[in-house]
């Protein structure tokens, strides 16, 4: 894929999970994103600065991908309360719904 001129480099990440999250987010938006070099970082983490994971997207989707990632980075985040040991494992259910 690296030599495939249909795809272009979108971003690099030293953490495989960051590249994978970016790729999966773009796929959910209908963009065929792929991660290169993920196996190097998973097997040999010390190689991450030398061989970062690269997210590749089709050339025609490059600008849209950048816009989507910018929107994601600027999206407001929501504070979530920490769970305590007393919290249920699942959502509350009403037996009348069954």
A few lines on this structure:
The chain is α+β, with helices and mostly antiparallel strands and about 100 residues long. It has helices at about 15-30, 40-45, 60-75, and strands at about 5-15, 35, 55-60.
Fold and architecture overview:
- This protein has a three-stranded antiparallel β-sheet with strand order 1-3-2.
- It has helices at residues 16-28, 38-43, 62-74; strands at residues 7-13, 34-36, 53-58.
- It contains three helices and three strands.
- It is extended and about 55 Å long.
- With 98 residues, it is of the alpha+beta class.
Task: Produce the secondary structure layout.
Blueprint: E1 7-13, H1 16-28, E2 34-36, H2 38-43, E3 53-58, H3 62-74
> What amount of the residues lies in strands?
15-25%
Strand order of the largest sheet: 1-3-2
What share of the residues lie within helices? Answer: 25-40%
Point out poorly predicted stretches.
none
Tally of DSSP helical segments? 3
Amino-to-carboxy terminus distance: 50 Å
Largest sheet: 3 strands, antiparallel
Class derived from helix and strand content: alpha+beta
Give the C-alpha Rg: 19 Å
In total, the number of strands is 3
Query: What number is the mean pLDDT?
Result: 82
Task: Give structural attributes.
single chain, alpha+beta, 3-stranded antiparallel beta sheet, extended
């Amino acid at each position: 894929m690296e030599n495939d001129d249909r795809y272009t480099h979108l971003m690099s990440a030293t953490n495989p999970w960051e590249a994978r999250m970016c790729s999966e987010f773009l796929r959910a938006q209908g963009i065929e994103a792929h991660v290169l070099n993920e196996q190097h970082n998973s097997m040999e983490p010390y190689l991450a600065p030398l061989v970062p994971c690269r997210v590749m997207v089709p050339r025609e989707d490059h600008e849209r991908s950048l816009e989507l990632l910018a929107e994601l980075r600027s999206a407001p985040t929501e504070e979530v309360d920490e769970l305590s040991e007393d919290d249920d494992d699942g959502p509350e259910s009403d037996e009348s719904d069954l």
